[in-house]
Amino acid sequence: MTQQAELPPITPPVPQPESDFYWEKCKEHELWLRRCKACDSTYFYPRDISPCCFSRDTDWVQSSGQGTLHAFAIVHRGPIPAFRDRSPYVVAMVELEGGARMPTNLVDVEPDPSAIKIGMAVQVVFDDLDDKISLPKFRPA
Ligand SMILES: [Zn+2]
Fold first, then answer.
1. Ligand 1: distance of its center to the CA of 81 in Å?
2. Is the pLDDT of residue 6 over 90?
3. CA–CA dist 9, 131 (Å, integer)
4. Does 5 have pLDDT greater than 60?
5. What is the rounded CA–CA span in Å between residue 38 and residue 16?
6. Which of 73, 90, 124, 140 has the fewest CB atoms within 10 Å, i.e. is most exposed?
7. CA 49–ligand 1 middle distance (angstroms)
8. Is the distance from CB of 52 to CB of 34 less than 8 angstroms?
9. C-alpha of residue 78 to centroid of ligand 1, in Å
10. Residue 106: exposed, middle, or buried by beta-carbon count in 10 A (0-12, 13-18, 19+)?
11. For residue 20, is pLDDT > 80?
12. Chain mean pLDDT for the chain
């Protein structure tokens, strides 16, 4: 999936030292999460200190990219031209295998409540925004 040239560009995320590895793997179309070794849970966004128990005993684990739709909203009026011209689109919270939840977009689906169900199985896909950033998004599995 590549950004359509005629639309205003989306401002890409700026990787931080803690998330460089995450973005490098997204560029390879792999989804990696941080895992807390103290309580064996995965979490998002990537950071060294776990949000579950504040342990620093964390590492990286590759996600299967499989999950379920936890919540969604259909945006009909985007806040800035880049998003306004892409509406309607679906913002979503996906719960990945392992429990981590990540905010994302649901794609390859009609932006209509009758086509989208909480709990539906979803699978990661990557949107190559530019030569550095590929955004993980999800489609129905
Ligand atoms: Zn923990």
1. 40
2. no
3. 13
4. no
5. 24
6. 73
7. 9
8. no
9. 36
10. buried
11. yes
12. 93
Give the Å distance between the CA of 117 and the centre of ligand 1: 30
In this structure, the number of other CB atoms found within 10 A of the CB of residue 78 comes to 14
- pLDDT tier at 81, thresholds 50, 70, 90: confident
Residue 19 DSSP code: G
88 C-alpha to center of ligand 1: Å?
Answer: 38
Q: Rounded to two decimals, what is the model's pTM?
A: 0.90
Residue 125 to residue 103: CA distance in whole angstroms? 14
In angstroms, the CA 139 to CA 133 distance is 19
Ligand 1 centroid distance, CA of 141 (Å): 29
Q: Which two tokens stand for residue 94?
A: 């996906």
- The model's confidence at residue 85, banded by pLDDT at 50, 70 and 90, is confident
> From ligand 1's centre to the CA of 99, what distance in Å?
12
Cα of 101 to ligand 1 centre, how many Å?
A: 15
8 token code pair: 């205003």
Beta-bridged to residue 96, according to DSSP, are 67
